[in-house]
Write a structure and sequence with these properties.
Layout (H helix, E strand, L loop, with lengths): L5 E6 L8 H10 L7 E5 L2 H9 L4 E4 L1
Antiparallel strand pairs: 1-2, 1-3
Length: 61
């Protein structure tokens, strides 16, 4: 079975004061705390969410 490509995402800015849609997107990715790093499968859906909120999260290489 082929290895699935993964991306690491860091939640580095607070969602306080952000629009409700942005807050939902952060929670959907699975973030619970600030400065948390998670690893998700690199799919178009995940990339789309990341591209919607680049001011709150960043991709770690």
């Amino acid at each position: 079975m082929a290895d699935k490509k993964m991306i690491k995402i860091k939640y580095y800015r607070s969602i306080i004061g952000a629009p409700k849609k942005h807050k939902i997107m952060v929670k959907t990715l699975g973030f619970r705390k600030l400065n948390q790093v998670i690893e998700r499968e690199d799919t178009p859906a995940v990339r789309g969410v990341v591209n919607k909120i680049p001011h709150l999260i960043k991709i770690i290489e």
